[in-house]
Structure formats: structure tokens, C-alpha cells
């Protein structure tokens, strides 16, 4: 019997997606340049599905892969983003792929590459894309999926994608967890829905990752203040995070932070996190989000700051040298009461900074959607992110509701629920930023969110002076508040008032 899906790339994500597809009743023909990886998937399938027929068939060439599939063929790629995607596409063309066959790229591809690929392969096959979030566990038991491209392809992919995706209870927005091989969740809302034309899904996943960077950095900054400012150990921080995770701050990233902080090094018995070198890696999606925000002209300072925080962490040797040269403020010992106050201020700071990071990400997607005519549905995107993905969090249900109330919402800060939350907690947020700053502990992302909030609160910003400066040295012109909008003015600045002395 022919297979339902061809699968290329059996790395950790690929293998788990294959087993997830198999659990949901699909038969897979699998190919990887490293046949050991194909064997590993076949063995794991046999192990997990002892009494059933094999659900994964190994193939040793692209030609064999196509020959094992039902026509029209559906092939899923789980290969590294970049040139490898094109190499596989060319190999599939060489193997005889047909124009009505569909190839789905599930990697973290740059969205503009996806747009190009849809056009490039148009005559050979339908290039479809579906970004996947959730890491290896998500891939195995239910990821969040962000498909985009041909609407026809989506009609074929949809039943498969909605069966393997994470599910949530539609009323509460709470994830319906799958944890065991063989288990399926036939009910609930699937975290997989059509995002839009080619490139839109990868753009949305890119912004998801930008928010992920911001969310992670905000948690790390709070951890830093709790460790250095309050002198707490990893266990104590972990306990605080566990308590917060039971409330408004409930999220996957909080949950894993609790576990990372509790983890002990088996050799020394010390908290493992204390032994991890403080140089952050990055594969590029956060950077792409920051670059896109600059190109689109959308303020996303918390996301950009999170990228910078990773960059500054990577200059370890330089930081060791500068730390010897520069001075930090003397810190006072805090009383127990002061410590407890700062802990609750940090809670509120984390929450408010997080809201602002999401507000930036959603506004960025909105502006990109207008620019590229994608017609993104933000309630649907928030719904998809409620489970399965790395940024899943209880408050994604509140974001879903905000966009259900107003699908055209320009910025989350305009939604009454979020503006009320920010008003309620902003005083503690300011205290946390001020105290951390006085202690000399960097809280760049939390501060960036606060400055963003404060800018959004200001009807008038000092850009009037800036426009004056620009007009002074470059005759760049300015508009006036007391004249018709759009009318440009220029002034011979140095002719009025004191003459400017020449520099010598
Ligand atoms: C996900 C993750 C995943 C990965 C990113 C970020 O949604 O499953 O976002 O895609 O964590 O590639 O990786 P870096 O932190 O290395 O940039």
C-alpha cells in the first residue's frame, strides 16, 4: 500500500514530526541523506507501535521516495533553512516530481526566500510552507503550525496539519496536553490555521521568534536582579518563578525556567545554570525580526534589545576586561521587607514588559500585512500560539479576545483589558526598573518596554526639536502644529538670534 506523505530530513524535529503523523494515522515514506536517521525513525516507530503494522517506510533515494507515495504526492521537508531547501527541491525535480505535487518547507526559512521559492518552483510543483514551533516535544506531541502559500494546497494539507497540531479547549484556551506515544486528541481547536499567501507564515513565525527572544530576555533580567540584587540562590529563584507560573505569568518559558534553575550538575551537585557559560547563541530569527521592524518602521525596542542582549553576552572576554576597568554602584543590603517588595515589583515588571513585547510583535505583523497585502487574521494567530509553540502562555487567550473584540486593533495597548493591566501595574514596573538601575544590574529589555510604554503615553515627543535640528543642518523641512497637515516649512535658522561663531 502506498504512503500518504513523503518526508525528507529525519533530524530530531523531522523524526518527531514523522512519529506524530504516524500516531495520527498517516503512513510515511522517509528519506534522509544519513540512512542511520531513517533507521532510527523506523526503529522508534516499531518500538512505539509494537502490535501494529510499520507506519514508517525507509527510502534510499528521492526516486524511491516518490514511487512509494500516493499521487498527487505530498512531501514534507524538515531540513536546515537556506541552500539545503533548494538542493532538496532540485533533487525532487530530478526524481520526477509533478506540477500538482506539494512540497512543504517546515524549517525556519527567511520569509523572502519562501516568496521566491513559490515562484521559482511554480512550474515544477507547488511550493508550500509551514513554519513549526514547539521544539522536539512539540513536534512529537503537537506543535503550533503556521502554514501559508497556495490556498488549494492548504485544502489538501489542512486535515493532516490540524490532526497533528497542538489542541486547546476552545472555551478556556487551555492546552489539551498529549504526552504519550499513540495518544491522539480528536477534539479541541487545532493550533494550525492558514496564515496567508506565500511568505506570510514564515514572517509570522519570525515574529513569534522575535517575541520569544524578548520573553526569554525579560525572564533572564528578572533572574539577574533576583540573584545579584537580592542574593537569592537558584532554588529560591526557581520557587519564585514556580509561584508566578501559577498566576498571570503562566507560560511555557516560565515553566522551563523553573526546571532549568532546579537542575543540578551530576558531577558537582551545584546548580547547573551556574556552570553554563553566559554567552548566548542565536540562529538569526530574532535578528530578522529586529531588522524587519526597522525596515517596516515599526517600533519594536524590546525585541531589538533582546537581540542586543545576546550580542553583548557574546563579548565575554571584552566584558571581563571592561568589568575590571569600570565601576559599579555600591549596593546596600536590603531588609527582608524591601526584598519582598522588590520581588513583587519584579513580577509586575515582567508582566508589563511582556505585554509591550507582544504589542510590538503584533503591530509589526499588522504593518507588514498591510505592506504585503497578506490580510493576516490576528485573532487566529493568537489562537494558534495558545499551545504547542515556545511562547505559549495563558495570556495569549487575552490577546485572542482582544483581536476578537476588534480585528483591526492597531496596537494591543489600545485594548481596554491591556491598558487597564498596564495602568494597574506600572508603578511597580517603574520601581523595579529604578531599583535595578540603581544597583547597576542591566534590565535593557524591561526598560525598553517601559520607554516604549512611556512613549506611547506621550501625545508630544521631543521630535519637534529633532525636526528643527534636521532642518537646521540639512534643510529637511518640517510640518507645523498650527498649520495645515502636510505643508512643509524651512527656516534660515542662523539668521535669527545670536550669530553662530565659526569653529576653529
Ligand atoms: C520554536 C523555536 C525554534 C528555535 C529558534 C530560535 O518555535 O520552536 O523558536 O524555532 O528555538 O530557532 O533559535 P535561536 O535561539 O538559536 O535563535
From TrEMBL:
Enzyme Commission no: 1.1.1.44
GO molecular function list: NADP binding; phosphogluconate dehydrogenase (decarboxylating) activity
SUPFAM superfamilies assigned: 6-phosphogluconate dehydrogenase C-terminal domain-like, NAD(P)-binding Rossmann-fold domains
Keyword match Transit peptide: no
Residues involved in substrate binding: 108, 133-135, 208-209, 213, 283, 310, 470, 476
Role noted for this protein: Catalyzes the oxidative decarboxylation of 6-phosphogluconate to ribulose 5-phosphate and CO(2), with concomitant reduction of NADP to NADPH.
Pfam families the record matches: 6PGD (PF00393), NAD_binding_2 (PF03446)
Gene3D superfamilies, sorted: 6-Phosphogluconate Dehydrogenase, domain 3, N-(1-d-carboxylethyl)-l-norvaline Dehydrogenase, domain 2, NAD(P)-binding Rossmann-like Domain
InterPro entries tied to this protein: 6-PGluconate_DH-like_C_sf, 6PGD_dom2, 6PGDH_C, 6PGDH_Gnd/GntZ, 6PGDH_NADP-bd, 6PGdom_BS, NAD(P)-bd_dom_sf, Pgluconate_DH
Keyword Nucleotidyltransferase: no
Domain 6-phosphogluconate dehydrogenase C-terminal positions: 201-494
Origin: domain of life: Bacteria
Assembly description: Homodimer.
Keywords noted in UniProt: Gluconate utilization, NADP, Oxidoreductase, Pentose shunt
Family membership: Belongs to the 6-phosphogluconate dehydrogenase family.
Catalytic residues in the record: 205 (proton acceptor), 212 (proton donor)
Protein name: 6-phosphogluconate dehydrogenase, decarboxylating
Gene Ontology BP annotations: D-gluconate metabolic process; pentose-phosphate shunt
PANTHER family for the chain: 6-PHOSPHOGLUCONATE DEHYDROGENASE (PTHR11811)
